[in-house]
Design brief:
The protein is of the alpha+beta class. Keywords: Signal.
């Protein structure tokens, strides 16, 4: 009984560490992408559904997009935690700006896609809560 509890704890810590590593890798690509992943994954949904297909437009001028599409039948539920984990996997394994597509779900019927924005917010320094970006610089670039 104790071995089972210890094994469960160890596997849970491994999964947590891996999720943290994915978030770090993703944050190094685009600092504000994990926050947008959390925003998109703030509710449970099913694939297919309007929420999953419409996804989230993000980035300085909302030209980036993340969404989940697929012809899953019957519709497959996606929890908030699974959503965050799988979007972080797309970002971490994706291109230099975190863009890409990975397939998940039963029979790989869910296409998880991140399209990065064309422009990044310029880095202006580190604050006590992490990286801050200057929105006043974005107006000049646009």
């Amino acid at each position: 009984m104790q071995l089972t509890a210890l094994l469960t704890l160890a596997l849970g810590l491994t999964a947590t560490t891996s999720a943290a590593d994915l978030a770090t890798t993703c944050r190094h690509k685009i600092a504000y992408l994990p926050a947008n992943i959390n925003k998109f994954c703030s509710q449970d949904f099913t694939v297919p559904s309007d929420y999953a297909r419409n996804g989230l437009n993000w980035g300085p001028i909302n030209d980036g997009r993340m969404r989940v599409t697929g012809p899953c039948s019957p519709a497959q539920p996606v929890s908030k935690d699974v959503c965050v984990r799988q979007m972080l996997e797309v970002c971490a394994s994706g291109g230099p700006k975190g863009g890409g597509t990975r397939y998940f779900g039963r029979n790989g019927c869910q296409a998880w896609t991140i399209v990065p924005p064309k422009k990044n917010l310029p880095l202006i320094g580190l604050g006590t809560r992490g990286i801050k970006r200057g929105e006043e610089d974005v107006d000049e670039e646009i």
